[in-house]
């Protein structure tokens, strides 16, 4: 009796299934792999002779650093972006920024969802929460979350439409201003889309070597850039919520915490810059009151993740540099184009401190109780960020022992938080120091979300509880 031969799946199908299984079983490792592949691909593209203005192959450290900065939407650079790269190189950078701004947030989970139809509930929860790691291990989740499981498609549609619509509107607003500045229509179109993409993705690259110099005091241009940066920094889940309803009573707790904390930091940062730089002749000392207010708010918004600057950063007072360090470290909203530890993480820590001061056992906000695992993840994210910043700063100071600590710390935090502001250290740093900064950008971008996801995924249910003992704290 003859038996039928066992039919094997085609090689392509087996590869897809393998990738799907990898994404299902180890989503955090899958995310890191995707980021690494993207960095490697864009490093290769930028290493091609056609990518440079001179037609020569770019040094590896410059190609790698730029690729990491592009994919991580950081904005730090080791070269003059406007003059070093050719039109082909700028196209590669533009595409990379768009992929980084959107894909860095959703590519790992969404790609896994697309390439494999066998992804389990946990991975769908990751996609639905848009990098919210708390959905991985809690089983059934209250549908008062930022994004419900059944609304995954709506979130993805919001991501796509918000990027297209917002960037088109920003480009349309900037186009006439660039014409008035003397640019020909063709150049104005290209530059308006470039400014739009680099502001919404919070990257901070500029299409010309002058940067924001020609528009340093122009409210039309600066306010448009600032609004675009803020829209990219508040996060796609918040945009999704606002698109559905503008009534605060219908907002999720995540949306309320994000908007309130974001606004407080924006206004508080602006007030700090206004007061600290009021008499500084190298920055705002010679400005009129209106310009001081405008520049203070612009710098406060850019310090969160935007990366653009109308003020010479090294000329800032030491106290202002410290304020900028703190704003950069916090960054923007979760699941946004901004970096940092995120504003909701800061809000959770302050709510915990407030609850402890009042003697409350529960962590509460806006009539909702916040589970203790949220606080644990917030603490983990902050410790992870502080560890990256400390380790990178120490490594760079060992490599370049003659550099100023405040400048090194400034650029390290900017790299970790994917901000892009620089004290000038990055371009003058040695190759080993630039490699450290590149690694800082990479781990800063994927670290907070991926570590939190890994911690959440690794949580296991214990069938017993150990005896309790309280150490002395404080």
TrEMBL record:
Subcellular location: Cell membrane
Membrane topology annotation: Multi-pass membrane protein
Main location as per UniProt: membrane
Name of the featured protein: TrkH family potassium uptake protein
Keywords: Cell membrane, Ion transport, Membrane, Transmembrane, Transmembrane helix, Transport
Species lineage: Bacteria, Bacillati, Actinomycetota, Actinomycetes, Micrococcales
Spans traversing the lipid bilayer: 30-48, 60-79, 91-115, 155-175, 220-242, 254-276, 326-354, 374-399, 435-457
Origin: domain of life: Bacteria
One Pfam family it belongs to: TrkH
């Amino acid at each position: 009796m003859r038996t039928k031969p066992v039919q094997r799946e085609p090689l392509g199908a087996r590869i897809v299934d393998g990738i799907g299984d990898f994404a299902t079983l180890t989503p955090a490792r899958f995310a890191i792999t995707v980021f690494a592949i993207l960095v490697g691909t864009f490093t290769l593209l930028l290493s091609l002779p056609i990518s440079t203005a001179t037609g020569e192959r770019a040094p590896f450290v410059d190609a790698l650093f730029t690729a990491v900065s592009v994919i991580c939407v950081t904005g730090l650079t080791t070269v003059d972006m406007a003059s070093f790269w050719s039109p082909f190189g700028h196209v590669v950078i533009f595409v990379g920024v768009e992929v980084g701004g959107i894909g860095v947030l959703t590519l790992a989970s969404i790609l896994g969802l697309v390439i494999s139809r066998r992804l389990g509930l946990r991975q769908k929860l990751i996609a639905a929460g848009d990098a919210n790691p708390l959905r991985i291990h809690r089983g059934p989740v209250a549908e008062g979350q930022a994004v419900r499981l059944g609304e995954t498609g709506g979130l993805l549609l919001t991501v796509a439409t918000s990027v297209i619509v917002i960037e088109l509107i920003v480009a349309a607003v900037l186009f006439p201003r660039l014409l008035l500045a003397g640019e020909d229509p063709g150049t104005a179109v290209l530059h308006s889309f470039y400014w739009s993409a680099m502001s919404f993705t919070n990257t901070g690259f500029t299409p010309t070597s002058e940067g924001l110099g020609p528009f340093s005091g122009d409210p039309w241009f600066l306010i448009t850039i600032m609004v675009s940066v803020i829209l990219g920094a508040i996060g796609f889940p918040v945009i999704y919520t606002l698109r559905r309803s503008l009534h605060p009573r219908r907002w999720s707790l995540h949306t309320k915490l994000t908007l309130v904390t974001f606004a407080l930091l924006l206004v508080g940062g602006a007030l700090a810059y206004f007061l600290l730089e009021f008499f500084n002749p190298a920055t705002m000392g010679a400005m009129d009151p209106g310009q001081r207010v405008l520049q203070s708010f612009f710098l406060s918004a850019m310090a969160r993740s935007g990366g653009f600057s109308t003020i010479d950063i090294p000329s800032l007072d030491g106290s202002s540099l410290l304020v900028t360090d703190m704003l950069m470290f916090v960054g923007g909203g979760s699941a946004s184009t901004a970096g940092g530890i995120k504003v909701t993480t800061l809000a959770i820590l302050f709510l915990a401190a407030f609850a402890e001061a009042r003697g409350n056992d529960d962590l509460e906000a806006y009539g909702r109780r916040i589970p203790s695992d949220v606080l644990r993840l917030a603490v983990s994210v902050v410790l992870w960020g502080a560890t990256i910043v400390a380790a990178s700063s120490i490594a760079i100071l060992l490599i370049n022992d003659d550099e100023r600590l405040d400048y090194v710390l400034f650029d390290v935090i900017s790299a970790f938080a994917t901000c892009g502001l620089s004290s000038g250290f990055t371009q003058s740093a040695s190759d080993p120091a630039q490699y450290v900064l590149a690694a800082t950008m990479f781990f800063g971008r994927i670290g907070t979300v991926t570590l939190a996801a890994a911690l959440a995924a690794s949580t296991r249910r214990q069938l017993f509880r150990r005896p309790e003992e309280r150490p002395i704290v404080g």
